[in-house]
Amino acid sequence: MHTYPDLLKLVNQKIAQTSFGSNPKELYEPIEYMMSLGGKRLRPVLTLMACDLFGEDVNKALDVALAVEVFHNFTLVHDDIMDNAPLRRGKETIYKKWNMPVAILSGDLMMIKSTDLLAATEISDIRPLLFLFNDTAAKVCEGQQIDMNFETSKEVSHEDYIQMITLKTAVLLGASLQLGAMVANASKEDAEHLYQFGKNIGIAFQIQDDILDSFGEVAQVGKMIGGDIAANKKTLLLIELLQSVHKDDKIILEALFAEQNQEKKIEGVLNLYSKYQIHAFAEKEKQQYLTIAYQHLDDVSVPATQKQILIDTAKDLMERMS
Question: Which of 214, 322, 237 is nearest to 284 (CA)?
């Protein structure tokens, strides 16, 4: 079995060796720039891990792994435009470094290049991979739209929120694993169990991210605590508070939504989180999805020792502080 650093090195080498095109340079340079920003490359590494899990040569899954990474970065390029975000991994976002039309067009081309990479995978029938890849891509777009809809929705339920983070974040983690398993000719049952493992880890991870935004420490999280609160973002924590809060406290909460002093707003909402035990609620929800994830991993029909790398990776992801 390969280690995470081994697989990350393979992914980075594949990226360095891949030419996305050159002319016109205004179209292709942003792609090269985006793909050079680095990161943990979690999704393509998961693809290789899944392939390795069933004893297949991981090099066979490298094109699929890179397809997943290029697609993920495409979503980030467009997310940065929608979020008006100036920085990505400490560097200027494409639309800031170039301009918005370039970012849109380069992002579109990244989506095309990702399917080209997928099609280059040397297996007898590429169609099941393509169907899964495109279905996942569509779901990610659906999740992004639902998230934007939340900004103007007066009421968002727990179920609505879980659906959104499942589509926007979790399905791609699940598909990354399932694609690797499919390249390795794993059974449909094993490939589905890996998908469910990744999906539920992704849900738990997003809940953890919400928790850290309100209850982490600046030195650990690497950003301002309470950013979601300041933006009135409908996280699972806020949704639970809105459903739990008593009449008098609801008046206080509504006043806090309009509060211009960000420190006062964050402190006030955190006090209500404490009063209604929102932290404990979110931790319990997170643990439920982790339990489901590990149950699915247990059901994959390979020796337990070979699954340890996935368990360790999931633990590292949940302990992530930024």
Answer: 237
pLDDT tens for the 322 residues of the chain, in order: 899 999 999 999 999 999 999 999 999 999 999 999 988 999 999 999 999 999 999 999 999 999 999 999 999 999 999 988 898 888 999 999 999 999 999 999 999 999 999 999 989 899 999 999 999 999 999 999 999 999 899 899 999 999 999 999 999 999 999 999 999 999 999 999 999 999 999 999 999 999 999 998 754 545 567 989 998 999 999 999 999 999 999 999 999 999 999 999 999 999 999 999 999 999 999 999 999 999 999 999 999 999 999 999 999 988 864 3
- Which residues are CB-contacts of 283 (< 8 A; sequence separation ≥ 6)? 211
H-type alpha helices, the chain = 4-17, 25-35, 42-53, 62-83, 94-97, 100-119, 127-150, 158-165, 171-183, 188-215, 218-221, 227-230, 236-244, 247-257, 262-275, 278-298, 304-318
CA 219 to centroid of chain Cα atoms: 22
Q: Are 73 and 196 in contact (CB under 8 A)?
A: no
DSSP, collapsed to helix, strand or coil, labels residue 87 as strand
Query: Are 177 and 195 contacting, i.e. CB atoms less than 8 angstroms apart?
Result: yes
How far is 72 from 40, CA to CA, in rounded Å? 12
To 10 degrees, what angle do helices 4-17 and 42-53 make? Answer: 120
- Retrieve residue 305's tokens: 């020792």
Specify the length of the chain in residues: 322
What domains can you pick out in the chain, each with its CATH number? 1-134 (1.10.600.10), 187-322 (1.10.600.10)
| Contact residues for 261 (Cβ-Cβ < 8 A; gap 6+) | none
Number of neighbours of residue 145 by Cβ within 10 angstroms: 14
Distance CA 226, CA 216 (A): 9
